[in-house]
């Protein structure tokens, strides 16, 4: 008796996967790719209460990622492939004779193939009181939730036992939680496995500078507790004591091989289920082991995800018995690149220089925390290396490993500008060089994707080859290769906006302005690519052209109201509903609060509205108030009340002016030299509603202390005793950029005239979704060119720029006020066209901290509802 | 899918098993934009009309994000295939087959729809 699933009248063989971690999930994907999910019943026993998630990115939970963000499991994928997933229900016994697995809840499944992907468990050294209250490990989302809770309520100091990769991540997390953090490492340096002494020293300095206390060369002897049994400190091997409220053990991991031991499978001396090159256990052809629980044929247990993915692919290929493509797993590259606490650390190949007769090239600069070492064979072959502080070259260097790089090794580690340094482009790589080590993709395969499978963009190449879809560290090199390949094959790299237009955004802007083209359809039918004329356009060009038409509306004779006529169909969903879409389908509402100044009356109105509609309220990072959780049909009701109270749209949804923040300035502040609040309000009211290639942010500070952070804005203004300094091109976000000074000591009028010109020049020449910061860095001549154009009027266009802005200011009208007075437009604000009074049942909320949050229950998967589906 | 001539009293109808369920006036659909409709069994459908007057109907739920919002996405054509891009994370779905253009392992339900 080997089969339990019956489809039609044909019995299907059963594959049981134990463990739904990173490698388990990859294995399921490999099964699906090989069509095995169609021919087999697939049952997954998952110990954790949630489906597979990105453990590698676990720490990003503390920088704002939610458990949902970390999920690796696409529920639709499981459903489509009929995978039965049992959450919170680990396998407890395996009967290899009967080929049967039993789970904790008593589920019994007979298998034809059993795949163990049970991962590792954190090793906790057997010190006294290791299980005391306040002691944690760092492996699962549940561990993190527990640490966070404890840190918030019961701890001010935390210590991490172990200064390896995970220990540093854990310490960073503790610091992020506001604890003062210690790292205790037995070895004489941090990250002893990955880096050598020099690298460890560079790392140590940088990490200590961040305010973490590092104790190397000492072991933990005992956890000290109070009478209630909670942690108060630890005793170290040098006799000293360290006071701490919380301890995280991160002293390495051990393979979870107990299930395998219990059913008589062979495990290694130091753990790990012994498998052959096909990832089949050495004792039983029906049982496989993959990932961190497996002891590979080369005698190693791999603690990284990339080798696990390779094992997953190998096992799936073996199960498919695909004669044409039999895979083997004979060992893997241990290269890693990490960003630990903001420090780049990378090691690749033979990083420690263990090969016979090898030579080192080392560059070390302790002032800036830089350490770079390359290991080179006598014949010049690059064997490996370590990079600390700057791992820019990692992608290229890793790919050159195993060959003789075409330039001298010194030039590869010297920083840019230090004499001999050269940029070694990926075009110099040999075809066999592995560019993506997560998915084992060579340069040749990537070139093939371009030359043979006619991929022309990085996303296409990713889809075609899988390169770049793992840790992502190779994507940069990928982009360079694709461009180089396209250029080499004589393909003119298409700079067109999208598949519908061969022009850039800037060119389309010029067409619209010069020829007064005022509808999208007209533009597409006359200037679109051949196949696109007369068609429906796409989601890239519609909003981009919609934005150009809106920016130029009064000048070209179009309506300035974005929901008018054809324009409504061009807008992104946020602009179409004049609100920001949230993850559960509800919307947020942000009224404009110019300069951040608001009366008590105004605050009360907002408070009352939020209370009456049950909205979640939050002060934003932009000095205003956001109300979340409005259903689409509530938006007009909410806005009717806001407009009545004198509020208008804050355009939080639009690629347009967001906020002009201000500090209190001269009026109240003893340092202020100008009225920064008044200027901020004036500017916000002048540029409100101005549609642009990307959002625009601004701020005005009353003196050089810069409390309004003007230098991080697209245009920022700082008061001087003589007037105003104007800074441009600042950016917060993912790639912060300090703004550049454009002009000094301007009068009010001069300031506004210059901003008018600057903004209109940006709107005219920037690419779609290009902030002023990237635009300034991209355009030829950079800041100097922009200054020539907008200050010196070198192109003779300043009059036109000013007049375009004048038109905008004169024609501004509040979109929400217009909308609530237009019954036809209001009719769009319904949940269902055929049931306007029924609210969307998917939009639900649950309480949190006295307010609401979206309720996103786990959805039903496979043949039956998920076990533990009440878990959120 | 049916070519819908431009008359005002035409209704949009959706095929459910043997029957045609009337949803709304054809004029309720702006070309290039969608609306959501609720089915008697609680399912939600996103309805679209393109520039040429073709009608399309797919499941309203975004399988990636989970929210029922596909009717609020932008439409367009990609290599001749009409699609809607989810307003959440922008994955595109072929309006005729329901297949996700950015991940062909994912497919959403499609419905027969006509103007009558
Ligand atoms: C609400 C708010 C967070 C908060 O609770 O404080 C917020 C929320 C969002 N931000 Fe932000 N940002 C908010 C202030 C900021 C700030 C701070 C600031 O403005 O001073 C920044 C950094 C400054 C900057 O932009 O240079 C910021 C940088 C971003 C970025 C990165 C931009 C970049 O150039 O790298 C994005 C992504 C994007 O626009 O592509 C983003 C995108 C978003 C989106 C629109 C993401 C999305 O598409 O759903 C969020 C919409 C929330 C919503 O539905 O209402 N948000 N965001 C803040 C609204 C301010 C306001 O009153 O309008
Ligand atoms: C904080 C952190 C950072 C990391 N950073 C990196 C990095 O930067 N680069 C890198 O390559 N690797 C990194 N790793 C390691 C990487 O996460 C692992 O290599 C990878 O998760 C291994 O996958 P796996 O599927 O073998 O094990 P896991 O992902 O651990 O999954 C195993 C699953 O099996 C379950 N299980 C165990 N026993 C049973 C049972 N009897 N029945 C049912 N289920 C069971 C477990 O609960 C678990 O969910 C990191 C790990 C952590 C914790
Ligand atoms: S920037 Fe200057 S004027 Fe404004 S609040 Fe700060 S110190 Fe006062
Ligand atoms: S190296 Fe990790 S995705 Fe390519």
From TrEMBL, chain A:
CDD domains: NirB_Fer2_BFD-like_1. Homodimer which associates with NirD. Residues 335-396 form the NADH-rubredoxin oxidoreductase C-terminal domain. It is an enzyme of class 1 (oxidoreductase). Residues 654-793 form the Nitrite/sulphite reductase 4Fe-4S domain. Signal peptide: none annotated. [4Fe-4S] cluster binds at residues 663, 669, 703, 707. Its EC number is 1.8.7.1. It catalyses: hydrogen sulfide + 6 oxidized [2Fe-2S]-[ferredoxin] + 3 H2O = sulfite + 6 reduced [2Fe-2S]-[ferredoxin] + 7 H(+). Pathway: Nitrogen metabolism; nitrate reduction (assimilation). PROSITE patterns: NIR_SIR. Its cofactor is siroheme; FAD; [2Fe-2S] cluster; [4Fe-4S] cluster. It comes from Streptomyces phaeofaciens. Binds 1 siroheme per subunit. Binds 1 [4Fe-4S] cluster per subunit. Residues 434-478 form the BFD-like [2Fe-2S]-binding domain. Keywords: 2Fe-2S, 4Fe-4S, FAD, Flavoprotein, Heme, Iron, Iron-sulfur, Metal-binding, Nitrate assimilation, Oxidoreductase, Thioether bond. Siroheme binds at residue 707. Belongs to the nitrite and sulfite reductase 4Fe-4S domain family. Residues 582-642 form the Nitrite/Sulfite reductase ferredoxin-like domain. This is assimilatory sulfite reductase (ferredoxin). It comes from the Bacteria. Pfam families: Fer2_BFD, NIR_SIR, NIR_SIR_ferr, Pyr_redox_2, Rubredoxin_C.
TrEMBL record, chain B:
GO terms for biological process: nitrate assimilation. Residues 21-116 form the Rieske domain. GO terms for molecular function: 2 iron, 2 sulfur cluster binding; metal ion binding; monooxygenase activity; nitrite reductase [NAD(P)H] activity; oxidoreductase activity, acting on paired donors, with incorporation or reduction of molecular oxygen. It comes from the Bacteria. Keywords: 2Fe-2S, Iron, Iron-sulfur, Metal-binding, Nitrate assimilation, Oxidoreductase. InterPro entries: NirD, Rieske-like_NirD, Rieske_2Fe-2S, Rieske_2Fe-2S_sf. The keyword Ligase does not apply. NCBIfam families: nirD_assim_sml (TIGR02378). This is Nitrite reductase small subunit. It comes from Streptomyces phaeofaciens. The lineage of its organism: Bacteria, Bacillati, Actinomycetota, Actinomycetes, Kitasatosporales.
């Amino acid at each position: 008796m080997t089969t339990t699933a019956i489809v039609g009248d044909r019995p299907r063989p059963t594959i049981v996967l134990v463990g739904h971690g990173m490698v388990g999930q990859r294995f399921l994907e490999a099964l699906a790719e090989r069509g095995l999910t169609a021919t087999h019943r697939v049952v997954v026993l998952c110990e954790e209460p949630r489906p597979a998630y990105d453990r590698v990115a676990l720490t990003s939970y503390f920088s704002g990622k939610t458990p949902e963000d970390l999920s690796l499991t696409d529920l639709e994928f499981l459903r489509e492939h009929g995978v039965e997933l049992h959450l919170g229900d680990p396998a407890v016994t395996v009967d290899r004779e009967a080929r049967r697995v039993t789970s904790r809840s008593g589920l019994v499944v007979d298998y034809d193939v059993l795949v163990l992907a049970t991962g590792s468990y954190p090793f906790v050294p057997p010190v006294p009181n290791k299980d005391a209250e306040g002691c944690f490990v760092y492996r699962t989302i549940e561990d993190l939730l527990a640490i966070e809770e404890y840190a918030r309520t019961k701890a001010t100091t935390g210590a991490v036992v172990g200064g390896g990769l995970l220990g540093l991540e854990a310490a960073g997390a503790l610091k992020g939680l506001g604890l003062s953090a210690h790292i205790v490492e037995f070895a004489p340096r941090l990250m002893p496995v990955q880096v050598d002494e020099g690298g460890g020293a560079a790392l140590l300095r940088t990490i200590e500078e961040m305010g973490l206390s590092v104790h190397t060369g000492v072991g933990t002897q005992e956890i000290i507790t109070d009478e209630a049994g909670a942690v108060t400190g630890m005793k170290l091997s040098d006799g000293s004591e360290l006071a701490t409220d919380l301890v995280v053990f991160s002293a390495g991991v051990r393979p979870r091989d107990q299930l395998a031991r219990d059913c008589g499978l062979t495990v290694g001396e130091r753990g790990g289920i012994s498998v052959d090159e096909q990832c089949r256990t050495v004792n039983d052809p029906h049982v496989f082991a993959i990932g961190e629980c497996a002891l590979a044929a080369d005698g190693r247990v791999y603690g990284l995800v990339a080798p696990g993915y390779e094992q997953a692919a190998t096992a799936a290929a073996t199960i498919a018995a695909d004669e044409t493509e039999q895979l083997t797993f004979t060992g893997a590259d241990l290269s890693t690149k990490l960003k630990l606490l903001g420090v780049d650390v990378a090691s690749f190949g033979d990083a420690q220089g263990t090969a016979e007769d090898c030579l080192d090239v080392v560059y070390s600069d302790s002032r800036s925390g830089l350490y770079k070492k390359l290991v080179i064979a006598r014949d010049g072959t690059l064997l490996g290396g370590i990079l600390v502080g700057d791992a820019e070259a990692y992608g290229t260097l890793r790919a050159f490993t195993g060959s003789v790089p075409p330039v001298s090794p010194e030039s590869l580690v010297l920083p840019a500008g230090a004499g001999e340094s050269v940029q070694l482009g990926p075009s110099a790589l040999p075809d066999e060089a592995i560019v993506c080590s997560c998915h084992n993709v060579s340069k040749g395969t990537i070139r093939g994707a371009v030359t043979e499978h006619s991929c022309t963009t990085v996303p296409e190449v990713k889809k075609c080859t899988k390169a770049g879809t793992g840790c992502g560290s190779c994507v940069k090199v990928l982009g360079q290769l694709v461009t180089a390949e396209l250029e080499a094959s004589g393909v003119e790299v298409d700079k067109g906006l999208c598949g519908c237009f061969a022009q850039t955004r800037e060119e389309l802007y010029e067409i619209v302005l010069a020829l007064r083209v005022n509808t999208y359809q007209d533009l597409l039918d006359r200037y679109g690519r051949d196949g696109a004329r007369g068609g429906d356009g796409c989601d890239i060009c519609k909003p981009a052209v919609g934005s150009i038409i809106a920016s130029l509306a009064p000048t070209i004779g179009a309506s300035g109201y974005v929901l008018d006529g054809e324009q409504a169909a061009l807008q992104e969903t946020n602009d179409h509903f004049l609100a920001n879409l949230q993850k559960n389908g509800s919307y947020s509402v942000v009224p404009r609060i110019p300069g951040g100044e608001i009366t008590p009356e105004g605050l009360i109105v907002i408070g009352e509205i939020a209370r009456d509609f049950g909205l979640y309220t939050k002060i934003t990072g932009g000095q205003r108030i956001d109300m979340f959780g409005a259903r689409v049909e509530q938006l007009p009701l909410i806005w009717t009340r806001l407009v009545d109270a004198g509020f208008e749209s804050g355009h939080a949804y639009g690629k347009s002016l967001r906020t002009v923040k201000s500090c209190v300035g001269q009026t109240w502040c003893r340092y202020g030299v100008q009225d920064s609040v008044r200027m901020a309000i004036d500017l916000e009211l002048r540029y409100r509603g101005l549609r642009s290639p990307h959002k625009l942010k601004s701020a005005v500070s009353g003196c050089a202390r810069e409390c309004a952070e003007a230098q991080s804005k697209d245009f920022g203004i700082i008061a001087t005793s003589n007037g105003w300094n104007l800074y441009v091109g600042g950016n917060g976000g993912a790639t912060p950029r300090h703004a550049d000074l454009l002009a000094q000591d301007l009068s009010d009028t001069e300031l506004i005239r210059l901003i008018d010109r600057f903004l209109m020049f940006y709107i005219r020449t920037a690419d779609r979704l290009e902030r002023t910061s990237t635009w300034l860095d991209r355009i030829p001549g950079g800041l100097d060119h922009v200054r020539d154009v907008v200050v010196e009027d070198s192109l003779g266009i300043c009059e036109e720029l000013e007049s375009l802005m004048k038109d905008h200011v004169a024609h501004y009208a509040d979109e929400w006020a217009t909308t609530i007075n237009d019954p036809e437009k209001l009719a769009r604000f319904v949940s269902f066209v055929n049931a306007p009074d029924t609210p969307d049942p998917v939009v639900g909320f649950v309480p949190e901290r006295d307010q609401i949050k979206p309720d996103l229950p786990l959805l039903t998967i496979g043949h039956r509802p998920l076990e533990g589906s009440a878990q959120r | 899918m049916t070519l819908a001539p431009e008359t005002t009293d035409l209704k949009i109808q959706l095929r459910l098993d043997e029957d045609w369920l009337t949803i709304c006036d054809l004029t309720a659909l702006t070309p290039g934009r969608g609306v959501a409709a609720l089915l008697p069994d609680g399912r939600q459908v996103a309805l679209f009309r393109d520039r040429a007057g073709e009608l399309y109907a797919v499941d309203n739920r975004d399988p990636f994000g989970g929210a029922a919002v596909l009717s609020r996405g932008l439409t367009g054509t990609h290599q001749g295939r009409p699609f809607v891009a989810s307003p959440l994370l922008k994955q595109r779905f072929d309006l005729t087959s329901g297949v996700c253009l950015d991940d062909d392992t994912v497919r959403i339900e499609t419905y027969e729809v006509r103007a009558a």
